[in-house]
Amino acid sequence: MKDKSIMHKFMIPILAIMLAQTVLFACIFLFSGTVSRLNDNSFDILTERTQSRKNYLQNEMIQKWSNLDSAEASINTAVDELLAIHKRSSAQFDQETGTAILNAISGDLITLLREHAVTEAFVILDGSGNSATKQGLYLRDLDPTTNSDDNSDLQVERAPSSVTKKLGISLASTWSSNFELSAADENSKFYYLPLNAASDYPDALSSDLGYWSHPFSLSPDFGSSIVTYTIPLRTSDGTAYGVLGTGITTDYLAGFLPYSEIDINKKGAYLLGIREDESSDLTPIVTSGLMAKMYIGTSETASLVPYASYDNIYTLEKNDRITDDVYVSTQALRLYNTNTPFEDEQWILSGIIEGKYLLDSSSHVIVMVLVSFIISILFGIISAVIVGKVLTAPISILGRVLRASTAETPLHFPKTHITEIDSLADAVQILNRDVERTASRFSQIIQAADISMGAYEYNPITNQVLISGKFLSLFGLSERTHMSSEEFGAQLKLFSAAREETPDRNTYIYKIPTKDGGMRWLRLRLIGDDKPYMGVLSDVTRELLEKRKIEYERDYDALTNLLNRRAFHAAMKDIFAHSEKLKVAAFMMWDLDNLKYINDTYGHDYGDEYIRSTANVLKRFIPYNNAIVSRISGDEFYVFLYGYDNKNSAMDIIRSIKAEMDTEPFQLTPKKQTRLRASVGIAWYPDDAVNYFDLIKYADFAMYTVKHTEKGQIAEFDSNLYHRDSFLLHSKEELNKLIEEESVQYVFQPIIDAHTGEIFAYEALMRPISAHLATPTDVLRIAETQSRLRQIEKLTLFKSVRTYLNYPDIVAGRKLFINTLPGQMISGREVKEFEYEFGGILDQLVFEFMETEKLDNEFTQDKLDYYAKWNCQIALDDYGTGYNNDSILLLLHPDYVKIDMSIVRNIDTDRNRQIMLQNLLSYLKYQQISVIAEGVETSAEMNTLISYGIDYLQGYYVGMPEAVPARNSIRSVEIRSCQSGLDT
């Protein structure tokens, strides 16, 4: 039989007793019913919270959002009065009557929107025909919690133009003058159902015919989905002539469902849905809660399974996403009265929470029972150990004495009166004295040399460790000459967390804090192959700090603390050497926008802070897996994101960081704030390239592409564009030369007065002097990709006016049109230079806003302030195309508008162009804006334009661009003749 220790013999009976007690306790607890009562309480709390939230939501929907009696009465009264005034019946609705009605009730609709705290309010008129096009007025307030006295927080989504002008409320981006409501379209039910119900139930109150709609969008570009409540509108004779409604966006509605009240840890969710025909399935309307997407997903219905133990408690039907029990408490909202047309559509509010969170109380109790069981077993083990220790104490005395011995107290074993053990103790004492003498001599040598080092040697026979030099004091411990191997190992183990591995498996580096708050690095080298018996410890603090400082300064950018170009290329070389780690990867080039402007306008200190702020945002890539971030040059950063299974995963991260950058504030001055702005080019591995240098080239091209199209956005590499526009990457030096040497000249095309035929003004047109940049379009494209548009703006302003002033006898009294880029602004210093040099003719200048990009509101306002100060005039180029629309007219208030040549071309034969011109002229003349027709190339076009009342003419037919401005108009006689014919 195997020998067993005393500890082993005592442990078995003690453990058996404790196990029996624990099992008895567990049985009593499990059969007491405590767990089921805890579960009942959890379901009651879920039901109570859902019911409370249902009551609140129901009150909002009935008492506020659908309480339209006052508005209905006011609108019906106004309609009856208008019909009486116009002597029309409800069956004689026409567009003029409809417009009058909408003008009359617009105030009531605004009051309805404000008082009922809804996001939408609308009236739709049925008209006199069966057309799907309906007149109406649709107002939107995306934040009903705050109101503006001037209605600046409102938007018009649908209304005739005449109504919008009267209201003075801004138009939404999706504005249309009419509603398009097809009876076959599901999204039109909100209109047709209550309207038809009014015909089917002529004696019913309008409030009983109200209809709550399913979520829908008014048009594909409408934005978020809405839920509406609509009632029919009827004249005094009972004829339904339209509907009145309110609406709530689903995003706003979700704010009334605070899912955190379901579970404090935010593991719950709310689902507001519709149940029809007593079905247990719900059609989702809106959800709230982080877990709702997992529970419901994009399903059109949520399938519920009755839970037999409780009323109004269900479980979600399990599927690929839902594998555990998810409990649902349902509460029906009473939105419709009984015996009304839509009472079968029952709205249900459901509180949802997964079983493991709902029933965590009972789960916690069960866990505590298991913990108690484990503690009981551990208690038994500890008891057995203690008893064993007591019984074996006399035999362990010698071991403790040996371990407790130090250099200051000579080793001395007490007598055990056991012959063999006492003989062994005497031999150990003799060996110990020899070891102490050897250690003392070595320590004296080390101390005499004043070297920060120490050593140890292990003697396996005595199980002692001989210590010499400053081995222990380097660790901050008291020096000793020897100790047992167990004690020595325990001392080193205290510093195991501070130990760093090195390529040499027998060498370790320890990072030890010092008493003065600094750090000390120690290197321990072990001697011996498989079983090291000796070690040498030395202080390498100075060596490591110097090495790390050199490495850091070599590899990191001083301004941003990001990897520099050398370190980034080294990291990329290393990762591409292990291509199996790459999977799907995104190589990004981030290029700062407006850095040059900030440096020139506010100084390089602000520019450096702008770079640092951008770097701090890009560092947010680092917590994600496998991200390398670097600053490559002044305003360029590289980011490499790799190791993803698909593009979408990486792109979600990129868009998230870009969104954070776009909203990151940057303080320019104590009173002026802007936001960080950067353009991003992305090349994908392996789709675009598998070579590191090709990825750089393609990301560079993608970044320049976005600079050329719409700065501040993200662009992915497009091989088709690359083959077409790759010259942009190779024309940097050509552009630099053009800007530095001002290698452009300006020609002047006359603008002719369409009434007198005389030259009214000239437009300065750029002509590059370059072999590769042949046209102004080429110059602008490459300048945009190189962020040099501001220099082109400056070059155009100064050189065009200087050239113009070379011919004072010709241009005297005539204006000069100068093209200006909407998104560019010269520096404050350059503005003062321009004022000083050209102060005498500033009132002759007309600044023409080009259609190269969307207007930058900040720069545009700065420009308008300067132009007003200089008494200059403003022109808007290419009106009727691209970005130039009515909203820009309201922003700029220009003195001149240039009709785009695409409208002028063939206007003498194209009736559609003539109608378009007539409408534009009517609107612009109403705004007291002079109109210039561009691109006039034939006599027929010129005569047609004059006949429609154009103010000025420009084009090859009336005057070619010339280096020396034309002194007289070549078409003056022909124009005056045409005007005379019109007068007669």
TrEMBL record:
The keyword Transmembrane helix is assigned to this record = yes
Q: Which domain of life is it from?
A: Bacteria
Q: What keywords would UniProt list here? A: Membrane, Transmembrane, Transmembrane helix
Q: Which Pfam families match?
A: EAL (PF00563), GGDEF (PF00990)
Q: Where is the GGDEF domain?
A: 583-719
* SMART domains documented for this protein: EAL (SM00052), GGDEF (SM00267)
Q: Give me the segments passing through the membrane.
A: 12-31, 365-387
Can you give the residue ranges of the EAL domain?
A: 728-975
Keyword Transmembrane belongs to the record = yes
The family database entries (InterPro entries) matched by this protein are listed as: Cyclic-di-GMP_PDE-like (IPR050706), EAL_dom (IPR001633), EAL_sf (IPR035919), GGDEF_dom (IPR000160), Nucleotide_cyclase (IPR029787), Rev_trsase/Diguanyl_cyclase (IPR043128)
Q: What is this protein called?
A: EAL domain-containing protein
Q: What taxonomic lineage is listed for the species of origin?
A: Bacteria, Bacillati, Bacillota, Clostridia, Christensenellales
